[in-house]
Amino acid sequence: MSGISLQSVSKRYPGGVLAVDGVDIDIESGEFVTLVGPSGCGKTTTLRTIAGFETPTDGSIRIDGEDVTDAPPYERDTGMVFQDFALFPHMTIRENIAYGMEAAGEYTDEEIDARVAEMLELVELPGIGDRTPDQLSGGQQQRIALARALAPRPKALLLDEPLASLDKQLREQMQVELRRIQQEIGITTVFVTHNQEEALTMSDRLAVMNDGQFEQVGPPEAVYDDPDTRFVADFLGTANIFDGTVLAIDDGYATVDCGDVTIRAQNADGIDSGSAVSVVVRPERFRFETASADGGRQRPDAANVFEGEITFKRHLGSSVEFRLETDDGQELVVVRRSGLNERAPGDRVTVTVGADDCRIVET
Ligand SMILES: Nc1ncnc2c1ncn2[C@@H]1O[C@H](COP(=O)(O)OP(=O)(O)OP(=O)(O)O)[C@@H](O)[C@H]1O
Ligand SMILES: [Mg+2]
Q1: With CB atoms 3.0 to 4.6 Å apart as the test, which of 23, 108, 147, 197 could cross-link to 119 if both were Cys?
Q2: What CATH architecture does domain 4-225 belong to?
Q3: What is the rounded average pLDDT for all residues in the chain?
Q4: DSSP string, 110-154
């Protein structure tokens, strides 16, 4: 198994579109990396340069330590699954899976038969080898597309929105299944999606793309909890974002004037007074205050306090989401664990959040 390395890769299409703009990443052997970002940000183009279907305008690509920047796709040993995972309709499932090995012309019939059987076991569909694709469900076809890509033992698996055409339930099931198979064979995988939840739940690391660039690369928890930019905070999960100007800095914390509110926030290193910044607060970071017996607040030292009224409440399963309108006219999203929350729309509430849970990001 082998890693993939992109160095300053750019791709400008004939006609002028700069689809990929200087991306760098070292993907380790066996790692599952997701490229996530809005439509048109360059995910497919990046994947196609790794597969060899596009040649980068600048930069270099290594697979398994070998420079493949100018190598054709068939010399790169990658297996690719496309969004529509088009199986060959007139071939049986067995023939579909065998296709890459037959085309390579390096395997005996016995080797191919054994590998096809092994792949059908891997995707947990033994015994359907004689059917044709139209006799399978969408999820089964998807697994066969995966088996077909894996059969020739590629060095890396490249997946372009392979689950996009499946309905929600099947999609979630296939997310787990795909990850199981990937871990079982330990294959280096680059997965493309514009679905942020999929990116957060499946990956070892994700690269958030915007306008041809990687805005941030890191493990899901780190990118979610510590976004570097306003774009990343907004794109992944729900974020309360306050735009403002830094009034003062002390001890790595900043006091930020956000118009109607002043917020104390962390991650102020390298930021100057007077800078325009955004402050991000994840909804789970707020806490409701309950008045203590003497009428005072439970957390009198909390750096940031908001008073307001609940306008909306919905259950998300194990948690509950509240929308609040503060007395300053801010709309806040607050998420708390179910069962702890008797509060309802119309209730007046106080929420607090510590400075460590408010993060300054690039605007
Ligand atoms: N063959 C092409 N010729 C010219 N421009 C292209 C070509 N393919 C893609 N583009 C442009 O390059 C940019 C990036 O496209 P790409 O397909 O990589 O985006 P994407 O992130 O995969 O989007 P989506 O989520 O919609 O699939 C877009 O502006 C697109 O219009
Ligand atoms: Mg795409």
Answers
A1: 147
A2: 3-Layer(aba) Sandwich (3.40)
A3: 92
A4: HHHHHHHHHHHHHTT-TT-TTS-GGGS-HHHHHHHHHHHHHTT--
